Inverse folding.
C-alpha cells in the first residue's frame, strides 16, 4: 500500500542529515501510527543505524542532549522541536519482566521493529516509503491491537505491555486481537513486578480513553491485580461505575465515581497519585451520600464545608453517579442555580465572607479569646439563615449584646 505521511519540515531535515552522513533513518512508532490514523502526532521519534556518538557528530551544528546514551538515545533540537533519535537496537534478556538487562545496537531496522510492543507501533517511515514487517497498517485499518510476536513471551519480557495494550485499545477505540487478549488475562500477575508509577500512568490514560468502559470492564481481573478493592463490587456494579465514569470528563470525577464507597485514599496513595488528586477524590467520595437540599441556607453550608469548586464537582459527580429520580435531578439543578446566585450576589457563606472580622469585634470591646470565635460563628449561622444582615453595623450591634 502506498502511504504518504506528512512530516514536519524539521523531521524531514533530521532524516536528511542522518542520510547525508551515510546512515539509515526513519520516523518510527507512535508518530507513524497516529499520522496514519489522521491525527497530528505530538512528537516524532527517529530510529537510525547511526551509533549514539555518530548521531551526535551528524548534528554537531545543532543542540543535542544525551538523553539516554546507554539506550542509544540522543535528543536533537531543530527549530525548537525536540527529536529523540535512537540507534536501532535489540533488547537483551529481561530477567525482571521490566526492563532489559542490556541493549545491543544493530544495523538492521527489522531487528529494531521486532522489539517493539504492538504491530501498530512497529512501523517506520521515510521518504523511500514505509517499513511494515508485521502487518501494522492492516491492523490500524482494522483497529486491532496485536503483539509483535508471541504474546506470552512479549508480556513476560515486560509486564507493562499488558497495560499498554489496554491503554491503546481504550484510547484509540481499538479491539484487542484474540491471542493477545487471552495472554493478557493469563499473564496479568506480571504486573506485580511493575512500579505503581508506571501502572498509574497507563491506567490514567486508559481512563480517559473513548473505549475505557469496554476495556476496563473486559479486563476487570487485570485491574484487580493493582486495585484489589474493586473485587468486592462484582461485575455488574463495576460496569455501573464505569458507565458513570464515562459521563464525566475529568480524572478526579472519574476516580471518585470508580472508587466511591471504598478507601479511595488508600488506593490512590498506593498508585502514587499526586496529593491534590488524593485530597479532592477523598473529599468527593466521602460526601457522595450527603444530601444537598436545594435551599439557600443549606447550599451556603455546603459551600462553606467544601469550597465552591468542590461543591460544583460534587453535584456533577452526583448527577453522573446515581440513578436519581426526576425530582432529585431537579433538586441538583436548583442547587446549582442557587450557587450561581450566591456567587453573583456576593452573598455570605463563610467566616471570610462575613462583613466583620475578629479584629473588628476586639476593637468594639470584646475581649480577645475564644469568645470572639464563638460570636463570629454564631453570627455566621444567623446570616446564613437570613436572621441577621451581613452588614458591619448590624453585626457589631449583635456582637455588642453578647459582651
Ligand atoms: P504515546 O506517545 O501516544 O503514548 P507511543 O506509541 O509513542 O504512544 P511511547 O511510550 O512514546 O508510545 O513509545 C514509543 C514507541 O516505543 C512505541 O510506539 C513502541 O514502538 C515502543 N515502545 C514503547 N514502550 C514499549 C514497550 N514497553 N515495549 C516495547 N516497545 C515499546
Ligand atoms: Mg510517544
Amino acid at each position: 500500500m502506498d502511504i504518504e505521511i506528512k512530516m514536519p519540515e524539521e523531521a524531514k531535515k533530521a532524516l536528511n542529515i542522518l542520510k547525508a552522513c551515510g546512515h539509515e533513518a526513519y520516523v518510527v512508532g507512535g508518530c507513524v501510527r497516529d499520522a496514519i490514523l489522521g491525527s497530528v502526532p505530538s512528537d516524532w521519534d527517529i530510529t537510525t543505524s547511526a551509533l549514539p556518538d555518530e548521531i551526535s557528530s551528524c548534528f554537531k551544528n545543532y543542540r543535542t542532549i544525551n538523553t539516554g546514551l546507554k539506550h542509544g538515545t540522543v535528543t536533537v533540537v531543530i527549530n525548537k522541536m525536540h527529536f529523540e533519535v535512537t540507534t536501532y537496537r535489540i533488547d537483551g534478556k529481561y530477567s525482571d519482566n521490566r526492563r532489559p538487562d542490556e541493549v545491543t545496537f544493530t544495523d538492521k531496522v527489522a531487528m529494531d521493529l521486532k522489539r517493539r510492543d504492538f504491530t501498530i507501533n512497529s512501523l517506520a517511515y521515510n521518504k523511500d516509503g514505509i517499513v511494515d514487517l508485521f502487518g501494522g497498517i492492516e491492523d490500524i485499518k482494522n483497529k486491532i491491537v496485536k503483539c509483535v510476536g508471541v504474546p506470552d513471551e512479549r508480556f513476560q519480557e515486560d509486564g507493562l505491555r499488558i497495560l499498554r495494550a489496554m491503554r491503546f485499545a481504550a484510547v484509540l477505540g481499538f479491539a484487542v486481537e484474540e491471542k493477545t487478549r487471552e495472554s493478557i488475562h493469563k499473564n496479568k500477575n506480571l504486573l506485580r513486578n511493575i512500579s505503581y508509577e508506571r501502572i498509574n500512568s497507563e491506567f490514567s490514560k486508559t481512563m480517559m480513553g473513548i473505549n475505557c468502559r469496554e476495556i476496563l470492564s473486559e479486563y476487570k481481573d487485570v485491574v484487580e491485580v493493582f486495585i484489589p478493592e474493586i473485587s468486592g463490587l462484582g461485575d455488574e456494579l463495576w460496569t455501573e461505575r464505569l458507565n458513570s465514569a464515562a459521563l464525566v470528563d475529568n480524572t478526579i470525577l472519574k476516580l471518585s465515581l470508580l472508587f466511591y464507597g471504598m478507601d479511595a485514599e488508600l488506593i490512590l496513595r498506593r498508585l502514587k497519585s499526586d496529593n491534590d488528586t488524593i485530597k479532592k477524590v477523598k473529599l468527593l467520595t466521602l460526601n457522595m451520600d450527603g444530601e444537598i437540599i436545594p435551599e439557600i441556607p443549606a447550599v451556603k453550608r455546603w459551600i462553606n464545608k467544601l469550597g465552591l469548586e468542590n461543591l460544583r464537582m460534587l453535584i456533577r459527580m452526583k448527577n453522573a453517579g446515581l440513578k436519581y429520580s426526576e425530582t432529585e435531578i431537579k433538586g441538583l439543578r436548583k442547587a446549582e442555580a442557587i450557587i450561581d446566585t450566591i456567587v453573583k450576589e456576593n452573598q455570605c457563606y463563610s467566616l471570610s465572607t462575613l462583613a466583620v472580622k475578629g479584629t473588628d469585634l476586639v476593637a468594639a470591646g470584646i475581649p480577645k479569646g475564644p469568645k470572639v470565635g464563638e460570636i463570629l460563628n454564631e453570627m455566621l449561622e444567623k446570616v446564613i439563615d437570613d436572621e441577621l444582615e451581613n452588614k458591619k453595623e448590624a453585626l457589631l450591634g449583635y456582637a455588642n449584646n453578647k459582651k
In short: The chain has a mean pLDDT of 94. The longest helix spans residues 326-344. The two ends are 89 Å apart (CA to CA).
